[in-house]
């Protein structure tokens, strides 16, 4: 059971990349169910963060922007993990929402996720990102578009 909990992120990624959104959703729901059973596991925070990120990306593919915004907020509500606490959150869904003009929800998400970044990052990068977003520009999120895509 525990091995499956760790394998699912890679399987979700593969299904999503193949545009097999139905399969991705099935795997995401399995991932969320296993997360609920493993709240004390270090991967719990990753599961919450990434499952909501992918559900939001799938919602955008269906042009359900309101649902995608809900998933973005849910992904930011995670308790954290060793990966999130060291590298910060994945910004794929935030970027996709910015491309749709959804500025306020992304600014809120960034504020929610400040807890994952150290002072240096918060002071320099987040301030710059927020400034660009407020000017209706999309920041270069760099490696934050790839963190936690696959944990195996």
Q: End-to-end distance, in Å? A: 15 Å
Mean pLDDT: 91
Measured on Cα atoms, how large is the radius of gyration?
15 Å
Provide the CATH architecture.
Alpha Horseshoe
Main β-sheet: number of strands, strand sense, barrel status? none
- Helix/strand structural class: mainly alpha
CATH domain class name? Mainly Alpha
General form: globular
CATH topology: Serine Threonine Protein Phosphatase 5, Tetratricopeptide repeat
Number of helices: 8
Beta-strand content: under 5%
Low-confidence stretches: none
Percent helix, as a range, is 55-70%
Helix-strand topology string: HHHHHHHH
Number of strands: 0
Number of structurally distinct domains: 1
3D structure, described in words:
Helices cover 68% and strands 0% of the residues. By secondary structure, it is mainly α. It has a single domain, classed as Serine Threonine Protein Phosphatase 5, Tetratricopeptide repeat (Alpha Horseshoe).
Please tag this protein with its features.
152 residues, mainly alpha, Serine Threonine Protein Phosphatase 5, Tetratricopeptide repeat, 8 helices, 0% strand
Fold topology:
Layout: H1 2-17, H2 21-37, H3 44-61, H4 65-76, H5 82-87, H6 92-99, H7 103-112, H8 119-134
Helix pairs in contact: 1-2, 1-3, 2-3, 3-4, 3-6, 4-7, 6-7, 7-8
In short:
The chain is an all-alpha fold. The protein has a single domain (2-145), classed as Serine Threonine Protein Phosphatase 5, Tetratricopeptide repeat, CATH 1.25.40. The chain has helices at residues 2-17, 21-37, 44-61, 65-76, 82-87, 92-99, 103-112, 119-134.
